[in-house]
What does this fold into?
Amino acid sequence: MNDYNLTDEQIDKILTNYKKKSEREKKYYHNIAKHDEEFQKRNRQRAKEHYEKNKDIKKEKYVQNKDLLKAKSLFNYYKKHERLEDFKEKHIEKYNLLKNKNIII
It folds into this structure.
């Protein structure tokens, strides 16, 4: 770990500058950048490239977690209808899967 010997005033100044920079960038984006057609084109192109590049990765992730996602969905259905005891009795494997993943306690 780096040993920085910063005073409280220096830390406050760094945080204040960071907050100001963040606000300035946010204002710039909302008032200028997002309305610029060139920016919109570049942003859409970047988004398309990201989608194409990561489409297979998302699909693999879904396939690997399919059982978990289905179990969570079913659990939420039973929870919404206040029938958690029925879920525990009817879907023991799914209940144990959720418990092992620490999704339910």
In short: The radius of gyration is 24 Å. Residues 64 and 86 are 27 Å apart (CA to CA). Residues 66-105 form one domain.
